[in-house]
């Protein structure tokens, strides 16, 4: 008996001595030696907990048989035997069950987390907060599988992926006729429990970021973003130097339409986060086309930063506004998905989940529908196999989740594992997503500024500048004031208009902004604005914008612009300026600036005259000092089939010598001109397209120098329509 007691005592001393050895090994970075030492301390609960925690980090998610996971579970089981009042031991044991690949292990997670929470009640601080957070996350994941539940009507039994892959009208019909929203609000009890645990966690640790993040998302899910805003305000007060806290603040501000403040908060977050975390948050990779993702990975950090700057400069909805609403939305989505769908156990961010990827690109869906597990045909072909045992049957009862986007007609199908909100694309929707990335790399339709943005019709025309090496740019813009002012009360409204030119690096070259007061009086009212710029040859980005105060409506036009040079030793033409009317101010006109021009947006009603004006440079004089050249105008129908239309010259020239039809869809006019030699030759005329049907027409103006034999051509498109001429 004495020998047995002595041996037992010696064993206890030996195992207890292993923890300091494990601590020393861990301090020098030798985790293998630390695990071995901790596992040998079989009578030390703390050592067993440390062993379980280290082993759990070595588990590879998705492995069916994992030695690391088995040993981790054994260590945590021993820790709970030795110290049943240890919350850390029970929490670790719950995590090993959650990581398991079988449903029977995972359905025990709730019970183990409840036990961990019971013993953590008297243990304030980080451990108690971690336990409460994990318990809340478990409840949240249960809710994820039951949120937005739809019920099948009596005559419908399954949701076929073929329905979702069909015509958009079939998808709409399915949701209108075959299913209905569950009025019982399933999952609300899990949501209540999750909120209760999260608030308990914050009482234990007010700056526990995972808890604050999930609670922010949860409050948003319940339409309580103002409460979330108050929560994040308290968070940044208590942790003013936390980038994660400011990121959550930015999310809540953006979702309560405080976009300017959200931009400031998110920029503050990026300045405070560790460099790697900041780079991940602002990364463009989640919104790139697949072919561009590899190139992104090969860029240096400096090159990525510059590309991000250029990307967001191009994406900014309005240059008249200092707030980049799309960039704010991108960052807010990144914060949202990371807290909603993150998987701490698998060390997976929310952006790496299937739903997270879709959300990053396309934002919140217009329809979010989940269906009862096992009701999705062709996703679970073995679900009805009678030889499957109960656990395997449960494993196949995945939850189908459908997301629909109205404006883009995108649709996605996900499949969620039972008792565990790990999602995958259902059926062949991974391929659907891949194709969608090429068509729509990213969309921001959830922003009213983007979704309701109207169009400014703009005509740009280039002419040779007065200074060598420069060109004049005429900008003729048509603001759809009537549409922008729809629903506005009577009275003057403030209108801001602007033409902004940027260089290839998106730095301002010219910015011309005008503020006025307008009185809308009909739905088709148009405000015209004209700008003229003198620019050297090069690549530019042109934006014309209009914002109407009082109703918060906006319109814009964006153009990539290649300013040409006009050498003096060759035959060249300016752009062809299309107008409703054009006439010289007097008989001594020398350039396009000497004309009265009533510009057009390129839209004409059937039978309306089309005025054309252009300049020709480099005509060669003959021995008498005169220039002689031929002008040919060709009108071609591009979008409709038109049989036998005719054109006639209304004014501007008196020496037309030819008119010919070329097939059923083209008509040509030809005439000759002669004049005294000048640096530039201005030509103008008005043409009526008799009986022209509605459609898109291309006008080709060709000038042939009869002295040198050289030829030059410019094209312009016009649309003939009976609809609103501003559209």
Model description:
By secondary structure, this protein is of the alpha+beta class. The protein is built from 25 helices and 26 strands. A hairpin with a 5-residue loop joins strand 25 and strand 26 (711-720). Helix 6 (87-99) runs antiparallel to helix 8 (109-120), helix 8 runs antiparallel to helix 9 and helix 9 (126-144) runs antiparallel to helix 12 (188-204). The N and C termini lie far apart (101 Å). 40% of the residues are buried. Mean pLDDT is 86; it is low at 1-14, 375-395 and 652-663.
Level of helix content? Answer: 25-40%
Provide the gyration radius in Å: 35 Å
> What is the approximate shape?
elongated
- State the secondary-structure class: alpha+beta
How large a portion of the residues is in β-strands, by DSSP E? 25-35%
How many separate helices? 25
Unreliable segments of 5+ consecutive residues: 1-14, 375-395, 652-663
* Main beta sheet strand tally, sense and closure: 6 strands, antiparallel
How many β strands by DSSP? Answer: 26
Kindly report how far apart the N and C termini lie: 101 Å
Overall mean pLDDT score? 86
């Amino acid at each position: 008996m004495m020998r047995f007691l002595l041996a037992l005592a010696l064993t206890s001393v030996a195992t207890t001595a292993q923890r300091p050895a494990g601590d020393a090994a861990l301090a020098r970075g030798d985790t293998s030696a630390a695990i071995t030492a901790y596992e040998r301390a079989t009578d030390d609960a703390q050592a067993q907990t440390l062993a379980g925690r280290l082993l759990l980090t070595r588990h590879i998610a998705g492995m069916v048989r994992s030695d690391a996971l088995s040993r981790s579970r054994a260590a945590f089981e021993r820790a709970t035997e030795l110290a049943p009042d240890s919350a850390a031991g029970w929490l670790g044991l719950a995590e090993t069950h959650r990581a398991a690949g079988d449903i029977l292990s995972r359905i025990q997670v709730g019970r183990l987390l409840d036990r961990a929470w019971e013993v953590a009640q008297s243990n304030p601080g980080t451990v108690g907060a971690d336990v409460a957070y994990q318990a809340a996350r478990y409840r949240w994941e249960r809710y994820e599988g039951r949120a937005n539940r739809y019920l099948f009507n009596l005559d419908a039994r399954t949701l076929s992926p073929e329905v979702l892959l069909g015509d958009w009208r079939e998808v709409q019909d399915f949701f209108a006729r075959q299913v209905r929203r569950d009025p019982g609000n399933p999952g609300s009890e899990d949501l209540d429990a999750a909120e209760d645990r999260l608030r308990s966690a914050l009482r234990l640790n007010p700056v526990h970021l995972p808890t604050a993040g999930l609670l922010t998302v949860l409050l948003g899910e319940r339409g309580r973003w103002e409460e979330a805003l108050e929560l994040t305000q308290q968070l940044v007060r208590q942790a003013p130097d936390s980038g994660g806290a400011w990121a959550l603040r930015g999310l809540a501000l953006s979702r309560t339409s405080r976009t300017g403040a959200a931009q400031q908060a998110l920029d503050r977050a990026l300045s405070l986060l560790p460099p790697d975390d900041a780079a991940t948050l602002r990364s463009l990779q989640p919104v790139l086309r697949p072919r561009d993702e590899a190139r992104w990975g090969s860029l240096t950090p400096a090159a990525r930063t510059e590309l991000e700057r250029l990307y967001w400069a191009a994406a900014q909805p309005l240059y008249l506004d200092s707030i980049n609403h799309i960039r704010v939305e991108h960052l807010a989505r990144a914060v949202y998905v990371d807290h909603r769908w993150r998987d701490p156990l698998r060390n997976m961010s929310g952006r790496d989940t299937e739903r997270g990827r879709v959300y990053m690109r396309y934002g919140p869906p217009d329809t979010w529908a989940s269906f009862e597990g096992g009701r999705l045909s062709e996703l679970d072909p073995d679900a009805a196999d009678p030889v499957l045992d109960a656990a395997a049957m449960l494993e196949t009862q995945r939850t189908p989740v459908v997301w629909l986007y109205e404006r883009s007609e995108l649709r996605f199908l996900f499949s969620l594992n039972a008792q565990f909100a790990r999602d995958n694309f259902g059926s062949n929707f991974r391929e659907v997503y891949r194709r969608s990335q090429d068509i729509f790399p990213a969309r921001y339709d959830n922003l009213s500024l983007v979704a309701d943005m109207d169009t400014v019709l703009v005509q740009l025309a280039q002419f040779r500048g007065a200074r060598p090496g420069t060109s004049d740019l005429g900008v003729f813009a048509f603001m759809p004031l009537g549409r922008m002012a729809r629903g506005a009360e009577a009275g003057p409204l403030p209108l801001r208009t602007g033409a902004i030119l940027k260089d290839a690096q998106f730095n301002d070259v010219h910015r011309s902004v005008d503020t006025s007061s307008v009185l809308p009086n009909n739905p088709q009212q148009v405000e015209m604005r004209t700008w003229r710029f003198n620019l050297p040859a090069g690549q530019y980005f042109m934006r014309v914008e209009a914002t109407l105060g009082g109703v918060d409506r906006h319109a814009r036009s964006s153009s990539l612009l290649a300013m040409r040079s006009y050498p003096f030793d060759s035959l060249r033409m300016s752009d062809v300026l299309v107008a409703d009317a054009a006439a010289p101010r007097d008989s001594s006109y020398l350039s396009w600036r000497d004309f009265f021009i009533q510009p057009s947006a390129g839209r004409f009603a059937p039978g309306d005259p089309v005025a054309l004006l252009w300049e020709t440079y480099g005509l060669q004089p003959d021995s008498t000092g005169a220039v002689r050249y031929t002008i040919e105008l060709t009108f071609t129908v591009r979008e409709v089939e038109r049989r036998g239309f005719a054109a006639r010259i209304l004014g501007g020239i008196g020496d037309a010598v030819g008119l010919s039809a070329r097939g059923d869809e083209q008509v040509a006019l030809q005439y000759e001109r002669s004049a005294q030699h000048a640096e530039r030759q201005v030509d103008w005329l008005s043409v009526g397209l008799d009986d022209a049907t509605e459609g898109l027409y291309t006008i080709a103006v060709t000038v042939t120098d009869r002295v040198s034999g050289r030829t030059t051509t410019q094209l312009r498109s016009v649309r003939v329509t009976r609809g609103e001429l501003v559209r």
